[in-house]
Fold this sequence. Notes:
Layout: H1 2-34, H2 39-47, H3 51-54, H4 58-62, H5 70-84, H6 93-111, H7 113-131
Helix pairs in contact: 2-5, 2-6, 5-6
Domain J: 57-124
Protein name: DnaJ (Hsp40), sub C, member 8
InterPro entries: DnaJ_domain, DNAJC8, J_dom_sf
Amino acid sequence: MAAATTSGNDDEVSEVDDLFSRFMSEVKEIEKRDSVLTGPQQIERLTRPGSTYFNLNPYEVLQLSSDVKEDEIKKQYRKLSFLVHPDKNREDSERAQRAFEAVSNAHVLLLDQDKIKKVNEILRRSTCHGQGKCK
């Protein structure tokens, strides 16, 4: 009977893993769709309620994968900083300034090798805890 219980738990874990994988796939699709947002839409994305926590992940702020190369970081930073720059968004300059600061902070963080190692470790741990597969 214990074997049946263990098998049942394995099935539940497998189902949870599958659901989590599907959820993450959906999130990635949304992120991909959002990567073509206009300046005001990017400002909204970076300043909406809860963005303080969202903006802690520099990859999310710049809409990049964690295996990105330095030249792509710089390219994406230039693109987003132009879109959200307060001088380009005078009608919403206060929120544009906050969005611009989030983009700038993410850029600086991703180019600092010591800090990004810590960020990557935190992200790795949070991902493995979410999937229940930490080592």
